[in-house]
Write a structure and sequence with these properties.
The structure is a single chain. The protein is 61% helix and 0% strand. The chain has 74 residues and is an all-alpha fold. The longest helix is centred in the middle third of the chain and has 28 residues, at 12-39. The radius of gyration is 25 Å and the shape is flat.
């Protein structure tokens, strides 16, 4: 039996509780990760964080195209 079919065979209430449990586990992980990182000495320096922010920044550029597209010029 596959994992998906096993999940689907659970009662709706059990599936809902499982989903809430997974979301709670993720929330706890997001909430505690800064404390764990600083305790293990893995926290980024300000310079490293700024460099990462520059690399992850979204760059938007305008593509040049035909200005008369869709219009009929005579």
């Amino acid at each position: 039996m596959s994992l998906w079919s096993t999940y689907r065979s659970l009662t709706p209430k059990t599936r809902a509780l499982f989903g809430v449990g997974v979301m709670a586990w993720a929330a706890i992980g997001l909430w505690t990760s800064p404390q764990v990182e600083s305790a293990l000495g893995m926290q980024a320096t300000k310079e490293e964080q700024e460099a990462l922010d520059r690399q992850m920044a979204v760059r938007i550029s305008r593509a040049e195209g035909d200005d008369h597209k869709g219009s009929q010029s005579r």
